[in-house]
TrEMBL record:
<dbReference type="InterPro" id="IPR001932">
    <property type="entry name" value="PPM-type_phosphatase-like_dom"/>
</dbReference>
<dbReference type="InterPro" id="IPR052016">
    <property type="entry name" value="Bact_Sigma-Reg"/>
</dbReference>
<dbReference type="InterPro" id="IPR036457">
    <property type="entry name" value="PPM-type-like_dom_sf"/>
</dbReference>
<dbReference type="Pfam" id="PF07228">
    <property type="entry name" value="SpoIIE"/>
</dbReference>
<dbReference type="GO" id="GO:0016791">
    <property type="term" value="F:phosphatase activity"/>
</dbReference>
<feature type="domain" description="PPM-type phosphatase">
    <location>
        <begin position="3"/>
        <end position="203"/>
    </location>
</feature>
<protein>
    <recommendedName>
        <fullName>PPM-type phosphatase domain-containing protein</fullName>
    </recommendedName>
</protein>
<keyword id="KW-0378">Hydrolase</keyword>
Length: 204
């Protein structure tokens, strides 16, 4: 199937920029439908003026409402406030965010894990992480279709593969994204086995 459940979203508003990435369980039309419901919940929460924690709570609730126990998704929802240089984010059973230094050195952001969307308890407490980002740094959010991509030798592309791609990339978000996409494609002659998505925020 050509449709899948991975998506990313970026939206600027008066108080900064929202970034999100998600990976809906399964493949094909069912995963795409779940991904669409989840994205709709995020955008509705954002329009209503909700903060990160409420947006994630709304996203979890809507997955509970539309699906059964096999319906779930992982993801990260983040907010970047450029005037203060502060990034806030919530990770829901998803690979942690990465930050690339100006020289390309890559680090995983330590993050508290919350349950996947659709798997949280009714009284689940959400607490956003917070970190300052400096000029020249790049934030990278990705789905496991990137990190778990099999290489030509049978290994995993992994975070190390993302790091190698970034080392040779230009500093812009577009150049960094293209470099990662190219490296993932070139690492094996075989087609991708899983949906894959990546979003990059370059701090200027």
């Amino acid at each position: 199937s050509d449709v899948g459940g991975d998506w990313f979203d970026f939206m600027e508003n008066r108080d900064g920029a929202w970034l999100a990435i998600a990976d809906a369980a399964g493949k094909g039309a069912e995963a795409a439908a779940l991904g669409s419901v989840l994205l709709g919940a995020l955008r509705a929460a954002r329009r209503s003026g909700a903060g990160l924690e409420q947006a994630v709570r709304d996203m979890d609730r809507v997955v509970h409402e539309v699906g059964d126990a096999d319906f779930f998704a992982t993801g990260i929802v983040a907010h970047w406030h450029a005037p203060s240089g502060i990034l806030r984010w919530l990770t829901c059973a998803h690979p942690p965010p990465l930050v690339a230094a100006p020289n390309g050195a890559l680090a995983e952001l330590a993050t508290g894990l919350h349950p996947a969307f659709g798997r949280a308890e009714r009284r689940q407490k959400y607490r956003a992480e917070e970190r300052s980002l400096k000029g020249g740094e790049r934030l990278v959010l990705y789905t496991d279709g990137i990190s778990e991509r099999r290489t030509a030798t049978g290994g995993l592309f992994g975070v190390e593969g993302i790091g190698r791609a970034i080392e040779g990339a230009g500093p812009s978000a577009a150049a960094t994204t293209r470099a990662i996409q190219r490296a993932v494609t070139d690492t094996s002659p075989l087609p991708l086995e899983d949906d894959a998505a990546v979003v990059v925020l370059a701090i200027t």
